[in-house]
Write a structure and sequence with these properties.
The chain is α/β, with parallel strands linked by helices. The chain contains 13 helices and 9 strands. The protein folds into 2 domains: 161 residues, Rossmann fold; 122 residues, N-(1-d-carboxylethyl)-l-norvaline Dehydrogenase, domain 2, CATH 1.10.1040.10. The structure holds NADPH dihydro-nicotinamide-adenine-dinucleotide phosphate.
C-alpha cells in the first residue's frame, strides 16, 4: 500500500519505521533534516511539503503535538487537502481533542477522505517494539480499513466509538497516568523525608496495594536509577490532562482530583519548560521537598 506519514517526532519516527518495512512509504516532517535522517535509517521517500507527501497515498497518517497542528496541515496550497486522493484514508495518531477531530473529519469528508482518530499508548519503547495500544474513533468500516495499517505498529487496536472516542480514551488514560505520577512522587518524597530509603519504599509499595505502572516501571527505570531519559514531553502530558478535563466538563462530570493533578502538572510545565520530560514532574517534587529519590 502507498502510505504517507507526517510528523517524525519522538513517537512518530519509530511508528513510521514499521510502516517503511511493510509499505511504500513517503515521509514529511516540518524540519526536513529529520525526515532525511529517517529515510537514511529506515528507507522511504522524503517529501518537502504535506501536499507532495500525500499525492499518491492510499493511507495518510499524522502524529503531531495537538489536533490544532493537524487541522493547520490540511489547508493552504501546499497542504494535505491540495494533494490527497479522493477515497484515501486519514488516520490521525496525534493524542488529539475530540471536537477538533470531529471538525477535521467533516473537512476531509468534503474531499471524499475517510477519517479516524487513532492515538497510541505504550511510549517510545512500545513504538519501537511495535506493541502499541491504538485507540480508534471512527465509523466501523473505516476502522476495518485502518486495522491492517495500524497493526504495523500496534498490538491491541481497539475501536472505541465514533470520531473523537479514541481521543477521549487516550486523554483520560493520560490524565490517570499524570495523576499517578504526581501522587507517587508526592508520596515517595514524604516517605523519604520520614527517613524511609526510597528503593525500599518502592519495593514495598510494589508488593502492596498502592502499586501502579508508575511505581512498578517508571519510577525504578527512571527515577531511582537517576537516568531521566527524554521520551515524552511534560507539555504533551499537560495537554492530555487538559483534554480529559474538557471531556469531563462537556459531559457534566466533576473532576476535583484530575483538576488538582492538572494544576500541579501545568505548574511543573511552566517551571521546567516545553522540552522537559514528563517524569521531571517528580524531579520538581524532589527539588521542592529537598529530597532525592535514589536507592
Ligand atoms: P515531539 O514533540 O517529539 O514531535 C512533534 C512532531 O510534530 C515533530 O515531528 C515536529 O516537527 C512536529 N510539529 C510540531 N509542531 C508542528 C507544526 N506546527 N507543524 C507541523 N509539524 C509540527 O512529539 P511526540 O512524537 O512525542 O508526540 C506526538 C504525539 O503523540 C503527541 O500528540 C503526543 O501527545 C503523542 N504521544 C507521544 C508519546 C511519547 O512517548 N512521546 C506516547 C503516546 C502519545 P519538528 O521535527 O520540525 O519539530
Amino acid at each position: 500500500m502507498r502510505v504517507a506519514f507526517l510528523g517524525l517526532g519522538a513517537i512518530g519516527a519509530p511508528m513510521a519505521a514499521h510502516l517503511a518495512r511493510d509499505h511504500e512509504l513517503t515521509v514529511w516532517n516540518r524540519t526536513v533534516q529529520r525526515a532525511r535522517e529517517f529515510a537514511v535509517r529506515h528507507g522511504g521517500r522524503v517529501a518537502t511539503t504535506p501536499r507532495e507527501a500525500v499525492a499518491s497515498a492510499e493511507a495518510i497518517l499524522t502524529c503531531l503535538p495537538t489536533s490544532a497542528e493537524v487541522a493547520q496541515l490540511l489547508e493552504g496550497p501546499d497542504g494535505i487537502l491540495a494533494g490527497a486522493l479522493r477515497g484515501s484514508l486519514f488516520l490521525d495518531c496525534t493524542s488529539g481533542d475530540p471536537a477538533t477531530s470531529r471538525a477535521i473529519a467533516r473537512r476531509l469528508a468534503e474531499y471524499g477522505i475517510a477519517f479516524a482518530d487513532a492515538p497510541v499508548s505504550g511510549g517510545t519503547n512500545g513504538a519501537e517494539a511495535g506493541t502499541l495500544t491504538v485507540m480508534v474513533g471512527g465509523d466501523a468500516d473505516v476502522f476495518e480499513r485502518a486495522r491492517p495499517v495500524l497493526a504495523c505498529f500496534g498490538k491491541r487496536i481497539v475501536h472505541l466509538g465514533p470520531v473523537g472516542a479514541g481521543d477521549a480514551m487516550k486523554a483520560v488514560n493520560n490524565a490517570l497516568l499524570g495523576t499517578n505520577i504526581q501522587a507517587v512522587g508526592e508520596g515517595l518524597a514524604a516517605l523519604a523525608k520520614a527517613g524511609v530509603d526510597p528503593r525500599l519504599a518502592v519495593e514495598t509499595l510494589n508488593a502492596s496495594s498502592g502499586r501502579s505502572f508508575v511505581s512498578e516501571a517508571l519510577v525504578p527505570e527512571r527515577v531511582l536509577s537517576g537516568s531521566w531519559p527524554r521520551t515524552f514531553r511534560l507539555a504533551l502530558l499537560d495537554k492530555d490532562v487538559g483534554i480529559a478535563l474538557g471531556v469531563a466538563r462537556e459531559t457534566g462530570v466533576d473532576t476535583p482530583v484530575l483538576g488538582a493533578a492538572r494544576d500541579a502538572l501545568h505548574r511543573a510545565r511552566t517551571l521546567l519548560g516545553e522540552d522537559a520530560d514528563y517524569l521531571e514532574a517528580i524531579r520538581l517534587i524532589e527539588q521542592e521537598s529537598g529530597t532525592e529519590l535514589r536507592g
